[in-house]
Specification:
Length: 948
């Protein structure tokens, strides 16, 4: 027999005893030690006479070949292979030899493998391989041995741990394939043996207990290192491609490549990044050496005797990979369900610890409802729960109030949506934008999430905008409810009363409406307001006592922060400032925290990954001298700003709800400092509020000089953050008041004060909801721009059919824009605003309206301008000058006071084409990979590998 060992001292004593106790005599034992660094060589020397030592890089096929050479030419007819972690049952060899005597046509025989050390769980009773390269045993996961598979039968292959093989057959097949140094050589040997006309039997009466040390990662060798999965997957791909019939090889090559991509996605979904990379590395390793594959296939073809149809019945059925796919989806769903159940169980345990009596009573009520009928109990609880009824009524009123944005909507700060989702994809992916006179200014970050959403909504950008505006308030309500519930439980295990959470959630959810952002079509601020509670909820994970959960919170927070920043760029700057203040404060309180990387690392990671996720926007913006866009809100310029009383009231000047209602909130937040039980978290809220106010004050001093206009930096998001923090502070103050009343009772003065505060607080969401339902918005649509319809249709045929629109007169001044395609749509406002002035075109227009010549008309054609339009009221002096210009032909206009001309000269089809940059391609790839990695790190974890 041949025994191969590598660092197997923990198993070798039992294995040696198993060999010595065999009921059938073992004529000779040759032990091959492959560079063990433990006590294995000494144990082998004491047990056996013939021990060979070789280097640690020696593969298993090489070790077997050396063992065969050591047996000499007159060695035994049968060779028994064992691993140092495979312990044979005393009757194992006897059962294998008996089966060989009963079936002289069998050339390879293998034992039943059971798990070591459990000894009862089945591992293998013969193996085969699926068309996707999966090792198939035909056993259920964790199946125990109860004699249910004890018939001797023909199989494709058996494990080399316990393999009994005719020496002549093994040498005739060329031994084990040296291309498979550790894994998969048993499957390849069995497949080659079947093709050569040999039979492989599984003998369940023979039992070997196998620890599978290398597969489970218990033992690492120089051949596997830390990448066991890479070696296993490479072995599977090699085995399939080296042994597949020629007619199926092209299909197999494509299938394995596509399958590798799908498997990578699957591993990424369960946060197994290393295994996903191993999948790719294994595929590249095999596919990058086609010469080795051709040589292996030639060698197999020379010894082939059996037809492939005879071998096919030994392979796994074609449908098996699809069943495994369903099993994987089930495992993924189970992982997510288990995680949710774990969170719910912790919450129930905390609540039970805080108030055992009420928890027990609730459990009894649930049991009674189960006895009467679960559906009936749920309905009854809903109609008898005033908080649930109030929430439902609130959402219904909000949805009805948002009816103005159903369908295509624009106006105020909101430009029309493009015609198709592909327009947003083009805007995001291309380096050069055919807008105006052409520009390399990158698309803003929010274009990508809008494109994804529009694609999910069957390619309708208008539906995406409508969905965001309609669902913004309910989504903010949901997020605020979750946030306030968790914050309340951080203060007290019982949490805040549900009616108090209801007030806080409804008050905050109406902030984007009552501030005026919703009515003015400021989509960026509306979406940011809806996401802020979810961002704050994720950031609370930084306070988790478990370091792993803090790192998980970092990826969730970073992803949400990047999404908020894409719609409101100032969010990242504000997060950096707030993060520095909070970390500095925590370090001052607990000085040892700065030495613990798991304390400051997660918030730093959350902030640091945002530039990576938004790299295709940020870096080109800086390179194209358009960095001012990182301080502007989404939408048309100028954006919304607020300061002073408007900032405290949460209103953008005259756009929002009555300011007196908004001033109630800061008063409540100030009074929230009084209850002692919640004073510290309320002060933390006020620190964040002061940081937001200070950031707003600094930003209000910044003026951004753009090509066409000078605008102040955006202060819309700090206003939303300030209002959110004030809501949290006021809710905590109310909870502190309730805790004080529960502890000390409700004296008459306190009861009267509570009623007064509750009445004043209720005014805030009620006034906001009523104001929203009254329909205060500017989203009725844009006014007619005076451009004839046929010109618009012509411009939509290609970017070279541009329209030069000149407004104003000689006395008061002129300005111009170049309209292309379907006009300025959502996502293009910032690109055009940040594009530097085309001084040459400005000179051409200036000359055109004063002393036009043929050169100016030619310049227009070269720039892809087909029409020149003077919208109503057209300046007669300019119109007369253009009438007399050669090369310009008068064109009809729908409005008599609007004048238009067509350029007669041929248009340059490449007028607005520009250079393409590989840098953007690289940045888009980096962004895609970064998003994928962050999503994986946010996902639940499941490990489908067998554990020892």
């Amino acid at each position: 027999m041949l025994l191969v060992s590598h660092d197997g001292a923990r198993w070798l004593p039992a294995v040696i005893d198993g060999i010595r106790s065999q009921t059938a005599p073992v004529e000779r034992v040759v032990a091959i030690d492959t560079g063990s660094k433990d006590e294995s060589p000494g144990l082998l020397d004491l047990a056996f006479d013939d021990v060979r030592r070789v280097g640690g890089a020696t593969s298993y096929p090489e070790a077997v070949r050396l063992g065969l050479d050591a047996l000499g030419p007159d060695g035994p007819e049968w060779v028994w292979l064992l691993h140092d972690d495979s312990n044979p049952d005393p009757t194992c060899l006897e059962a294998l030899l008996a089966a060989a005597d009963e079936d002289p046509g069998a050339d390879l025989l293998g034992p039943k493998l059971r798990e070591w050390p459990s000894l009862r769980r089945l591992l293998e009773l013969g193996v085969t391989i699926s068309a996707t390269g999966r090792r198939e045993t035909g056993l259920e996961r964790g199946e125990y041995d109860q004699g249910q598979h004890d018939e001797v039968r023909t199989v494709l292959a058996v494990n080399t741990a316990g393999l009994l093989v005719r020496r002549s057959v093994l040498e005739g097949l060329g031994g084990l394939d040296p291309q498979l140094p550790m894994f998969g050589n048993d499957l390849d040997l069995g497949w080659r043996a079947a093709q050569a006309g040999h039979r492989t039997l599984i003998v369940p009466q023979a039992v070997v207990f196998h620890a599978e040390a290398a597969h489970r990662g218990v033992r690492r060798t120089p051949l596997t290192g830390r990448h066991t999965h890479y070696q296993e997957r490479r072995a599977a791909i090699w085995t399939l491609l080296a042994n597949a019939p020629g007619r199926a090889l092209p299909f197999q090559v494509v299938r394995l490549a596509l399958g590798t991509v799908l498997r990578m996605v699957g591993f990424l979904l369960v946060r197994s990044v290393g295994q996903a990379l191993d999948e790719l590395a294994a595929l590249v390793s095999v596919y990058s050496h086609p010469g080795d594959l051709r040589a292996a296939r030639r060698a197999r073809r020379a010894g082939r005797v059996a037809d492939h149809d005879q071998v096919r019945r030994l392979l796994a059925p074609w449908w098996l990979p699809y069943r495994h796919g369903l099993d994987f989806l089930g495992d993924l769903l189970a992982a997510a369900t288990d995680q949710a159940a774990d969170v719910a169980e912790r919450r129930r345990a905390a609540q039970a610890e805080a108030d055992p009596s009420s928890f027990a009573a609730r459990r009894v009520a649930v049991d009674d409802e189960d006895a009467l009928g679960e559906d009936t109990g749920l309905v009854a609880r809903f109609f008898t729960n005033p908080v649930a009824l109030a929430l439902t009524l609130f959402v219904v009123v909000v949805l009805v109030a948002a009816r103005a944005v159903l369908g295509e909507v624009s106006g105020g700060g909101l430009s029309p949506a493009p015609d198709a989702a592909r327009d947003w994809w083009d805007l995001h992916l291309t380096t050069w934008q055919p807008l105006g006179t052409g520009t390399a200014v990158p698309a803003p970050g929010y274009v990508l999430p809008l494109a994804l959403l529009a694609t999910l909504l069957l390619g309708s950008p208008a539906s995406a905008v409508t969905a965001l505006l309609v669902l913004a308030v309910p989504f903010a309500l949901w997020g605020a409810w979750r946030l306030l519930r968790v914050v309340g439980r951080l203060v007290s295990p019982r949490g805040a009363p549900r009616w108090l959470i209801l007030w806080g959630a409804t008050t905050y959810s109406l902030v984007p409406v009552t501030s005026g952002a919703w009515g003015d079509g400021r989509l960026g601020l509306v979406v940011a307001a809806a996401l802020l509670p979810w961002l704050a909820h994720a950031a609370l994970g930084f306070a988790d006592p478990d370091a792993d959960r803090r790192w998980r919170a970092a990826w969730r927070t970073g992803l949400l922060l990047a999404l908020v920043t894409s719609f409101a760029p100032v969010a990242w700057l504000l997060a950096v400032v707030v993060g520095l203040v909070v970390v500095a404060t925590a370090t001052a309180v607990v000085r040892s925290a700065v030495r613990d990387r798991s304390v400051w690392g997660p918030p730093a990671t959350a902030v640091g990954i945002v530039p990576v996720l938004l790299a295709p926007w940020w870096l080109p913006a800086v390179l194209e001298h358009a960095a001012e866009g990182l301080l502007l809100d989404a939408g048309r310029l100028p954006g919304l700003t607020a300061s002073g009383v408007d900032l405290l009231a949460g209103r953008f000047h005259e756009l929002g709800a009555p300011a007196w209602a908004g001033l109630v909130l800061p008063v409540l937040a100030a009074l929230a400092v009084l209850p002692r039980a919640t004073r510290i978290p309320v002060l933390v809220c006020w620190v964040v509020a002061l940081v937001a106010a200070a950031t707003t004050a600094v930003l209000s001093l910044v003026t951004l000089d753009l090509a066409a206009v000078s605008v102040p930096a955006a202060t819309g998001l700090p206003l939303l953050v300030l209002q959110g923090v004030l809501v949290v502070a006021a809710t905590l103050g109310g909870q502190g008041l309730v805790l004080a009343a529960r502890r000390d009772g409700w004296p008459t003065v306190l009861r009267g004060l509570t009623v007064l505060l509750a009445a004043g607080a209720a005014v805030v969401p009620l006034v906001g909801l009523g104001w929203f339902a009254a329909g205060h918005d500017e989203l009725a649509g844009d006014a007619d721009d005076g451009i004839p319809a046929y010109m618009v249709q012509s411009s939509e045929t290609g970017p070279e059919h541009g329209i030069l629109v000149v407004r104003g007169d000689v006395a008061t001044g002129l300005d111009y824009v170049v309209r292309r395609d379907d006009g300025v749509t959502l996502g293009e406002d910032e690109v055009l605003a940040l594009t530097a002035e085309d001084t040459e075109l400005t000179r051409v227009v200036r000359t055109l309206v004063s002393r036009p010549t043929d050169a100016e008309v030619s310049a227009l054609a070269d720039r892809g301008i087909e029409y020149v339009v003077l919208p109503s009221p057209a300046d007669p002096e300019i119109a007369g000058s253009l009438d007399a210009t050669a090369g310009l032909v008068q064109a009809s206009a729908e409005n008599r006071s609007t004048r238009a001309w067509r350029v007669e000269q041929p248009l340059d089809p490449d007028a607005v084409d520009g250079p393409r940059s590989w840098l953007r391609v690289v940045l888009l790839v980096v962004q895609g990979l970064a998003v994928l990695v962050v999503l994986v790190l946010c996902a639940p974890t499941t490990d489908r590998r067998r554990q020892p």
